[in-house]
């Protein structure tokens, strides 16, 4: 539901195709079609509820608030994860190849019935993995902890997560490695790491860095960013965890995650384009580091295949074919010259178009 | 059979707070909820929580504002308890992790809210309820060894022993369909209001009056049921809520003539008068032909004068609601709103420790009526109510349990409830051999109930309309006895829950209408066009509704007045 559009208009017919599964029947899942009639800007959830009220009360879907705040109605619509209450019927119709709105249960979680998935088995287990409560600094003050205004606005973005599971549904890393802590739980972890009242920031980061299924297990695919109905930007929170762990807390992890990120930056700074042959050894501490040897050996088959298919040449592997052009160097210099790291956060920086000057604001500052 | 010192039904703010307090006091605790705790409707509370924490403020000022907001129907001893304990409770929330927004000094920031004489509303952007609910759930996960969680369990009956005390519940595991008896020394109802008896409503689909009806059926009196709050700013399109925080940040209300009409109705507080006053003003503008929209059915809420950056930071959720549900960028143009059903001030009558008149049965939050809200609740007092009285109920129940033996509970009610559900699933779709009208779908009856309540038991009420509503509710009750459902399964059968919820809503609706007919004056949210004045001589008293045989019986109880004598209410 990216763009704004006007309400109103008269009811239209929409075809819903629901993925049904009855665990008591012993039958496989099947498609169930209903035609509903509603104004085009109404939500897919309202469509499903109309089908349930008029035609078949046995359609299973969790839902409650209808306003994208309770997080109950996570589903896949035309293959994309999201909230049923937060997707307009006309958008859903227009994004479907044949105009039929397909609704399926979320992925990466077992289905209980119809559109209802077992979130306890996956999502909530992962949330519990990140010690999801404040480990408050001691002593606890008599009144509130005094903390910078910006920090509390900053953690609001991860606090805004409604635990709907849309990001978990389509996490590619989790599909390959079901043990990956995953986008929702790691965004939750940021909520504590970014909270100045938490006493165990370093321990949390160290834990999440050293875990092979922790912050460095994310493959940076942006699926969760796209899936999130609340702009939590889970992948962005994971990247922030990495930056804080590496750059601020100097945590060098056993997964080579930190070294890999640095090798990447160094590589681009030097070459302008990625020079993959350097990336593997640099990620392990350099060509001659003992740690690099097993990595290089395990990378051999890939390199040989590349050579045989002509994707690589010996000179490309051994020499540095490119040199970073000036503009690339300029970007790096400019970023390095900033006194502070610039973190993207919608609550702090707003949308891209928010470049208006900001006069003194109403309602800010307290009466105290 | 699961047995606990304290069994809590409902896992919103009141329920979770009660569970944590009871566990802290050393009791064995279980919390049972028909949805996962973070789906509870407390999640939708947006604007904030009131507490006199500023040095320029005093809890007595908060208490007076609350008493005045209640139109002097609130019990002042209870209001004193709530307001004096508010600062400590907010600090407690801060300490366990709620990410309240700060001022430049790093202290809790406070925003203006309706009916408040100073800024005293602490907030987390406009997701305050969500932020607190999620932090309490963090605490439940932390204390998982002290609190057993039964998530997605639906209560079908409260249990009563031979002496009349509540001794547990019968509940259904939604996932498996299994029915089980839970015995408990004390049961705390914390399962919210009954907004779904209205349509439209800001309330979530799960808010179906379960606890109110269950307590009523067990013999506990309900109080202040006629007091139903219409929130001044709900989307015309679908009834979704636009937080009062918008007006707290500076938004104004405009009629079709572009006039800031609140000048006429509340010259001092303007848009930040109490909700009943603002909703009536809007409704009057609409009825007198000065509404906006194709049919003049709405009012403009204009927030464009608030700096965009501030709106995006502090009111992001309603920016999204405007964009996603009304197609309006509220930072650039006004949005069309109108009064909509939002909150039930009434509920199960309790004392300041949450105890009802049934021994062993407590209630806290919207399900309860202490009464701290009287005729009209102030914005940002509901979160406070849930937390203060949730905690107090949890503590009191834990203390009471310490000197009790675990009650012996039979399976009798379990068998009755199983039979009831089996019967419900087997109901025929066609008229019986004896003739009579064909049975209706549960969903149809619910829709008619909602529309009826919203038509006759709304901002303005009068005798004939209320009597009509009572007649419809009575007919719907009869029809609901035969209403049918489709789902015959056991796993996640939401259809069967919907049929049971319909019965709960009908009980609540009946109590609301009976009380509204009874109160022949205008006070707070009850405005009778046939009795337009407040009448302290005859009606400065609570109306109690008790189940007597098959129907509601009316009685009265006094309003507790400590330091504030009733006076004319002006904003």
Q: Can you tell me the CATH class of the largest domain in chain A?
A: Mainly Alpha
How many distinct folded domains of chain B? 3
SSE order of chain A: EEHEEHEEEHHHHHHHHHHHHHH
Determine Rg of chain B (CA atoms, Å): 23 Å
State the CATH class of the largest domain in chain B: Alpha Beta
CATH superfamily of the largest domain in chain B: FAD/NAD(P)-binding domain
Q: Averaged pLDDT of chain A, please? A: 88
Give the overall shape of chain B.
globular
**Count of strand segments of chain B:** 19
Q: How many beta-strand runs of chain A?
A: 7
Secondary-structure class of chain A: alpha+beta
Uncertain segments of chain B are none
Radius of gyration of chain A: 24 Å
CATH topology of the largest domain in chain B: the name is: FAD/NAD(P)-binding domain
Helix content of chain B: 25-40%
CATH topology of the largest domain in chain A: Fumarate Reductase Iron-sulfur Protein, Chain B, domain 2
Multimeric state: heterodimer
Largest interface: A-B, 81 and 95 residues
Question: What attributes characterize this protein structure?
Answer:
heterodimer; A: 368 residues; alpha+beta; Ubiquitin-like (UB roll); Fumarate Reductase Iron-sulfur Protein, Chain B, domain 2; five-stranded mixed sheet; two-stranded antiparallel sheet; 7 strands; disordered C terminus; B: 571 residues; alpha/beta; FAD/NAD(P)-binding domain; Flavocytochrome C3, Chain A, domain 1; Methane Monooxygenase Hydroxylase, Chain G, domain 1; 3 domains; 19 strands
């Amino acid at each position: 539901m990216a763009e704004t559009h006007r309400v109103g208009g008269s009811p239209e017919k929409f075809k819903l195709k629901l993925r049904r599964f009855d665990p008591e029947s012993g039958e496989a899942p099947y498609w169930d079609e209903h035609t509903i009639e509603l104004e085009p800007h109404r939500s897919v959830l309202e469509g499903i509820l109309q089908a349930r009220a008029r035609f078949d009360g046995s359609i299973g879907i969790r839902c409650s608030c209808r306003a994208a705040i309770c997080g109950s109605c996570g589903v896949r619509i035309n293959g994309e994860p999201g909230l049923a209450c937060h997707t307009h019927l006309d958008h859903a119709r227009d994004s479907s190849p044949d105009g039929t709105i397909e609704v399926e249960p979320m992925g990466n979680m077992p289905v209980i019935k119809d559109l209802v998935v077992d979130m306890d088995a996956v999502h909530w287990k992962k949330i519990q993995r990140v010690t999801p409560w404040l480990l408050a600094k001691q002593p606890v003050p008599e009144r509130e902890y005094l903390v910078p205004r910006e920090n509390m606005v900053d953690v609001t973005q991860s606090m805004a997560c409604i635990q709907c599971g849309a990001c978990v549904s389509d996490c590619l890393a989790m599909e390959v490695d079901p043990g990956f802590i995953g986008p929702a739980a790691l965004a939750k972890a940021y909520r504590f790491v970014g909270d100045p009242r938490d006493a165990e920031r370093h321990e949390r980061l160290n834990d999440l860095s050293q875990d092979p299924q922790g912050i460095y297990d994310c493959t940076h695919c942006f699926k969760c960013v796209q899936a999130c109905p609340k702009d939590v930007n889970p992948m962005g929170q994971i990247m922030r965890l990495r930056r804080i762990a590496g750059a601020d807390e100097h945590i060098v992890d056993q997964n080579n995650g930190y070294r890999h990120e640095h090798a990447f930056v160094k590589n681009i700074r030097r070459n302008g384009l990625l020079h993959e042959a350097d990336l593997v050894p640099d990620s392990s501490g350099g060509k001659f580091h003992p740690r690099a040897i097993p990595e290089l050996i395990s990378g051999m088959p890939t390199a040989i295949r590349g050579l045989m298919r002509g994707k690589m040449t010996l000179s490309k592997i051994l020499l540095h074919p490119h040199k970073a052009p000036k503009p690339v160097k300029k970007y790096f210099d400019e970023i390095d010259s900033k006194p502070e790291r610039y973190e993207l956060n919608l609550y702090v920086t707003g949308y891209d178009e928010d470049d208006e000057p900001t006069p003194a604001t109403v309602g800010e500052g307290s009466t105290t | 059979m699961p047995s606990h010192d304290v069994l809590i039904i409902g896992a919103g703010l009141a329920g979770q707070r009660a569970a944590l307090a009871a566990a802290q006091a050393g009791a064995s605790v279980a919390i049972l909820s028909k949805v996962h705790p973070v789906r509870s409707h407390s999640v939708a509370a947006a604007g904030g929580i009131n507490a006199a924490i500023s040095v320029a403020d005093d809890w007595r000022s908060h208490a007076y504002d609350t008493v005045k907001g209640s139109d002097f129907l609130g019990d002042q001893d209870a209001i004193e308890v709530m307001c004096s304990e508010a600062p400590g409770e907010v600090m407690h929330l801060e300490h366990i992790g709620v990410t309240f927004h700060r001022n430049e000094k790093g202290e809790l920031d406070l925003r203006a809210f309706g009916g408040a004489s100073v800024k005293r509303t602490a907030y987390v952007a406009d997701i305050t309820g969500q932020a607190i609910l999620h932090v309490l759930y963090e605490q439940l996960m932390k204390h998982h060894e002290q609190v057993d969680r039964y998530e997605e369990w639906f209560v079908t009956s409260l249990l009563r022993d031979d002496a009349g005390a509540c001794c547990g519940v019968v509940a259904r595991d939604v996932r498996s369909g299994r029915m089980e008896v839970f015995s408990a020394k004390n049961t705390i109802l914390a399962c919210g209001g009954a907004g779904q008896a209205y349509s439209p409503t800001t309330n979530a689909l799960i808010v179906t009056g379960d606890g109110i009806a269950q307590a009523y059926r067990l013999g506990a009196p309900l109080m202040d049921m006629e007091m139903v709050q219409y929130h001044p700013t709900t989307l015309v399109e679908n009834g979704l809520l636009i937080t009062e925080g918008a007006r707290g940040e500076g938004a104004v209300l405009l009629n079709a003539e572009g006039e800031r009409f609140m000048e006429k109705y509340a010259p001092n507080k303007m848009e930040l008068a109490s909700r009943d006053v603002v909703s009536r003003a809007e409704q009057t503008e609409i009825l007198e032909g000065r509404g906006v929209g194709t049919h003049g059915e709405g009012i403009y809420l204009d927030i464009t004068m608030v700096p965009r950056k501030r709106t995006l930071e502090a009111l992001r959720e309603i920016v999204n609601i405007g964009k996603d549900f009304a197609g309006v960028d509220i930072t650039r143009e006004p949005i069309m709103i109108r009064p909509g059903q939002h909150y039930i001030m009434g509920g199960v009558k309790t004392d300041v420790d949450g105890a009802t008149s049934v021994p062993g049965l407590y209630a806290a939050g919207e399900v309860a009526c202490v009464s701290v809200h009287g005729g009209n609740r102030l914005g940002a007092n509901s979160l406070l109510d849930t937390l203060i009285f949730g905690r107090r109920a949890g503590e009191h129940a834990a203390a009471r349990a310490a000197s009790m033996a675990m009650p012996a509970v039979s399976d009798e009610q379990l068998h009755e409830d199983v039979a009831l559900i089996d019967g419900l699933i087997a109901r025929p779709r066609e008229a019986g051999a004896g003739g009579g009208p064909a049975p209706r779908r549960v969903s149809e009856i619910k829709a008619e109930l909602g529309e009826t309540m919203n038509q006759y038991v709304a901002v303005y009420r009068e005798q004939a309309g209320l009597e009509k509503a009572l007649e419809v509710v009575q007919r719907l009750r009869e029809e609901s006895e035969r209403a049918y459902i489709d789902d015959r399964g056991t796993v996640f059968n939401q259809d069967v829950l919907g049929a049971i919820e319909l019965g709960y809503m009908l009980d609540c609706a009946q109590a609301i209408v009976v009380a509204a007919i009874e109160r022949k004056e205008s006070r707070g949210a009850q405005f009778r066009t046939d009795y337009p004045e407040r009448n302290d001589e005859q009606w400065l008293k609570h109306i109690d509704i008790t189940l007597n045989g098959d129907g509601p019986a009316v009685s009265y109880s006094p309003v507790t007045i400590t330091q504030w004598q009733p006076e004319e209410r002006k904003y």
